[in-house]
Each structure stands twice: as structure tokens, then as C-alpha cells.
Amino acid sequence: MATANTKILKVAIVGAGPGGLAAAILLSRLPFVELSVFEQARELREVGAGISINQNTWRLLQVLGAADSLEEFSKRGDGSVIDVEQRNGLTGELLGRKYQSVDPNTPARSRIERYKLQQALLSRVSPDLIQLRKRLRTIDDSGDDTFLEFEDSSRTGPFHLVVGADGLRSAVRQHAFPDHKIAYTGKVAYRVLIPQEKVAHIPNIPQGSCFWHTPSTHVYTNPLDNGLFEIATRATESEEHGNKVSWGQVVPKSQVVKHYQEYCDTIREVIDAPDEWLEFAMFGGPKLETVISGGRIVLIGDASHPLSGAFGSGAAFAFEDAFTLSSALEYTWNRKLSVAKALEIFDSIRGPHYEKLFAVLDTMAANAKTAAISAKDDSNHRVEQTVSKNWKANETAWIYEHNIVQVWREWVTLNDLKELDLNAGKPTAVKEGSREAFSLPAVPIAA
Q: Could you say which DSSP state residue 35 is in?
């Protein structure tokens, strides 16, 4: 167990996805951390299609030192470039359009292949840190020290801190919170990347990101910068089907096209273009009241809050978690406070943010139900209502613009002011909440 007298903090990260790699980059910069990363896969590879790089993601890629590797995909909006469109999938009618940021200093949202993001992160991690083929079986934290036990019968440790970055089906979460269960949502995601030539003959395809909506589903289309075309959608499948589908299973087009016959001609042709797709059964679960356990286990990313792919920003959430964790650990270490205190700080900052995310999901579900009740016989009206309430109002912009670096700075300021108040009376030279009163202590902007 780590105490104020511990000279080296031994940290284990379980999982080498975006969150685990981000945590590895940040924690390896802390001179007092001895780090190990364990990944169950035989090789590090990304399964899927594209991934959105929003403002919050770009900001943290800069902190991670990985932004330079993706600079070719970084765009500065001038207000004239369409960011995303919302269309009626039944008719093709344009329902809403958002333009890219006009701030020349802020990268606009981009869409890239998942493996390119993974490679950018891996370029900042020493290969010696990552051990592959390490599927976690259990955690032994019954004594003062914590050990990891794997399916290959190996046992390693001791560790002062275990970071669960092992995704939706987290073994770390199962150990720390055995009563928390995830379940099949009844939805299956279909994703694919194909050459743009395969859809070039199809009329009325927007030259940017577009969501095509029906009352109960949507299809996402997007031409990527490297000559590929991305298609992603979800469909309702039986519980038995969901239980059988592995993550990223190849399926023929016949499995997919049957779900989208009600769509307009443009989308039916788009869906028919790929010869095969990747299929993903979607699982989710309730919000955890806390993501820390015993003062030495913490969950980040999908392991901490299984949102079932909502908001298309899982990597960004994981980056924000990793940044907050590393910042809290350095803050407490420099003040000779415990790891448990660092985890409490982490939880106090990230918990309320996830509460807001789950509240948005509840609102979206309520909006969809209201639209279905109020317009049972008018599918077009139901589509318009759902898009208007969930998309046009732009009520989710705060998610993608969230500045966790500034959130951390403000927390440090307020906490230091409270300490001054307790120890020496109220300060008069610094106004509470001032952003000029300190510098960010945790992580340099570039490696």
C-alpha cells in the first residue's frame, strides 16, 4: 500500500486501448512512477472504422504529444465548411446543418481511421512497457499489497495502484464492483470502410459527415481524407443474436441490408455497396456511483462508465480520465498525500461529468418516446421532432468542447485557496477562480 513515505509508486495499467495508452503516456512522465501495462490481445490492432477527433480530443492529443502524427487530419475552420448534416433518411431532406468552428486556433472536428489514432498513441509509449497476451483473471488485494493474476497462471506485483482501462467488459471492474452488470442493449452496430469509388456513382451523397434518420434508427456516412468512405449504423437484433456476436465479426451484406429497406434510394444504394461488414453487439450498463475502490483501484474509459458507444467520443472521455488521473497523482505526490486521496480527487472531478452524460442519454430516450407517441402515424414528423430535440438545439456541444485542462486548473486554484483559507486566513491578492494564479502542474503540453 502506498504511503506518504513511498519512494516509488508502482502502477499497473490493465488494457492498452486508447485510454490505457493515454494513461501510459502521461504516467510514464511522472518520475516517481514505475509502470507496467498488460493487454490481453496477441497483438495491438484496432477493429472498427473511423473515429471522431473533436476539439476536446485534439486538445488532449497535444498534451499527449501525439497530435503531430495526426497533423495532416487537423483542420482549422473558417466558418464556411460544413461540419455535419442531419437528414431525413426516409426522404433525403436536409433537416439541419452545422458549420465548423471559426476559431483559427482550434482544430475543427475531423474523422480518421481508428488504427491511425492507435499508431499515434503507440509512438509515444515505450514498447517495453506493454506485455501482450495477459488476460486478467483476478486481482488479489486482500493484504497490504496488490497482485494481478492472469489466465496464463502468472502472477505479478506488488502494485500500489491498478488502473482498469480494459474496456466495456472490464475484468478490473468485475473484481472491484461485482454487483455491477452490463447487458446487451438489443442493438448491433454495423461499420465498414470502403473505397470512395464504390459510392461515387450514387447521387446526393454529402461530401462531409451526415446522419440519415428514421424514427428508430440512423445511418452515418462520411468520406475520409484518404480515399475511403465510412458507413456506420445500428440495428435492433434479438437477445440471442447479441449474445453470439463477437466484437468486430465479419458478416455478409445480406445481414445488413434487410434492416434499411425503408430508407431513401441514396442510402439503400450506399448500404448495398460493401460486400461485407463488421458487426458489433452493443452492451451497456448503469452509471457507477464511484469508479475507485480500496484506495488502490481506479477505472477509466469504457471500463468506468459503459455508455454503449453513445456520443461517439469514447476515446476522448478516456483521454480526459487519464489526464485527470495523472494530474491528481502528481498533485498529491508533491504534497505527500496518499494515492487514495488522488483517487478521491479524480472521482470528484470526473463523476459529475459522467452524471451529465447519462442525463443527456435519459433526455434523448424521453424525446424519442415523446415523438413516437405524438406522431404515431407520421414517420416524417417523428424524424423531424427527434432531430430537432436531440440535434438541432446543439445541446450536446459542451461534450465535445469540454476543456479538462482548464477544469483541472480551476480545481487546483480553488483547492489551494481553500488551503490558504484554512491555514492563513482568506487571501486578498488572488480572486477566487482566477486562471492567472498558477500554472498547470501536471503534464507538459508537448513531450
A: E
